[in-house]
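Summary for the funding panel

The consortium committed to producing paired sequence-structure records for every protein in the target list. Below we show the first two records in order, beginning with the earlier of the two.
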Amino acid sequence: MSNIKLKSIAGKSVCFYFHRKNCFKEASGTCSLFAEEEFKKQFTNLEEKATPERCPTILELMQISKTKLFPVYLSKYRCGHYQNGQGQHRICIAGHLGLEIKVIIDSVKDKDCGYCTNPESFILKHF
C-alpha cells in the first residue's frame, strides 16, 4: 500500500457515484458550493446526504481539520480514470476548489472504471 500523501486532484479524471439522494447538484442542478442562499432555500425535503448544507459543512471541516481527516483511497483504472469508495464528496470539493487532500492511491485496476462500464449510473468529472 502506498503512503498517505497530500495531493491535488488537478489534472485527474475521477469517477463518482453521485445521484439525487447523495448530491445536491444531482438533486437541484446546481452545486451547493456555488448556489445562492435563496436558491438553496427552495429545497427542503432532500435526503440527508443531498442537502445544500452538506458540502459547505464538509469544506469547513476540511479547512479546520486538514491533517485530522482520514485519507481518501483512490484507485486508478485501466481507462486512466480514478475512482473511490469513501470520501467522494471531499474529492469533488477539493477538485472544484483546487485544494489538496490526503490521498492513498491504493491500487491500479486491470479493468475500466464505473463510468466507462456504466455511464448511466456514474459521473465522470475532469479537474
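The next record, for a separate protein in the list, is shown here:
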Amino acid sequence: MPRRKLSTKRVPDGSPELVHEEPEVVPELPPRLLPKDEAAARILNSRTITKLYNERPPWLDLRHKELDRAVLAAYGWPEDLSEAEILSRLLQLNHQRAAARARRETIVQ
C-alpha cells in the first residue's frame, strides 16, 4: 500500500503545521499524526468534541441538518416532524422490531 501524504482532512481544523507524520509499525496502516512539539500538543489537546459541539460552528450545524434530512428521507418521513414525533416513531419502530424478533425466536425454539 502506498504511503499517504499529510492530508489536512485528517488534521483537526486543517492545521498541518501542528503535526508531523510518524510511520506506523504495521506497514498497511497510514502513518500516525503526532504533535510537532509541546506547544502544538497543548493546542491540539484543547480541541475537544465537547468544545466543538458547544461552539457549534456553522459548518457543523449545516452538516447536522443535512444528515437529519438524509435520515428522515431514508425512513420516508417528512422533514417537518418535531423531535417528539421523531422519537415517538422511532420508539414505535423499535417495538415493532422487538416483537418481530420475539416471534422469530419463538418459532426457532
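Regarding this second record: The radius of gyration is 22 Å. The first strand starts at residue 19 and ends at 22.
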